[in-house]
Write a structure and sequence with these properties.
The complex is a heterodimer of chains A (139) and B (69). With 139 residues, chain A is an alpha+beta fold. Helices cover 36% and strands 32% of the residues of chain A. In chain B, a hairpin with a 4-residue loop joins strand 1 (2-7) and strand 2 (12-17). Classes of the chains: A alpha+beta (139), B alpha+beta (69).
Chain lengths: 139, 69
């Protein structure tokens, strides 16, 4: 007796496509919340948001401007004077943060589309920092 | 046809069928990926649909009918 065969396949979209799960305004808000909640900055505003670039301005003891490019996922940090903090490190952290927020939004977007293609009989999340969303679909 | 879909945050999606046979599963997965593409989830790469068998070790053997010369 042989058990039922199982068919499997793996697909992948580009990380820049995952970023599209967030609107420019949502990206700006994600950056703003991170800088306030995680880095402790108090005066943080989203100065502009478009598909080309999202700009966030921080004012305080250290003033700087963050520009996020949704089409490439790159982050640039420009300070008003001198280098008073590790701009490259901050840019890296911000890029990862936006990627994670976009990742969750992307999971929900794909799940919503799948629910239109079949009946969702089960939905769960794996544990861990980068949890996967697991759907059981009847098509 | 039941399909399990694992959606990761990095853009990877894995598909598993746990009912029917491989041919049916392959078609179902292919149709689902195509439907996602039409809905706006463009995949950059797709692995070939693979077949996996598993169960108790003693069940994987096949026997040919013996014959005398």
């Amino acid at each position: 007796m042989v058990c039922d065969a199982i068919a499997t396949a793996r697909a992948r979209v580009k990380s820049t496509e995952v970023l599209k799960a967030l609107s420019p305004e949502q990206i700006g808000e994600a950056l703003r919340q991170y800088l306030i909640a995680q880095e402790g900055f108090q005066s943080v505003v989203v100065s502009s948001a478009s598909n080309r670039a999202v700009m966030v301005r921080v004012k305080g003891a250290v003033s700087f401007e963050v520009t996020f490019y949704p089409q490439t996922g790159e982050v640039a940090v420009r300070s008003a004077w001198g280098v008073t903090f590790n701009r490259d490190k901050l840019a890296q952290v911000l890029a990862v943060w936006v990627g994670q927020v976009a990742g969750v939004a992307y999971q929900e977007k794909v799940a919503a589309l799948l629910s239109q293609l079949g009946a969702v009989t089960s939905r769960s999340r794996t544990s861990g920092h980068h949890s996967a969303l697991v759907l059981k679909l009847q098509v | 046809m039941d399909i399990e879909v694992v959606i990761c945050q990095d853009g990877s999606i894995a598909f598993f069928t746990r009912s029917g046979n491989f041919v049916q599963g392959k078609a179902a997965i292919g149709n689902l990926i195509a439907a996602l593409g039409e809905a706006g989830v463009e995949v950059d790469s797709v692995s070939p649909v693979e077949q996996h068998r598993h169960g108790p070790d003693e069940t994987v053997w096949s026997f040919e009918t013996q014959h005398d010369h």
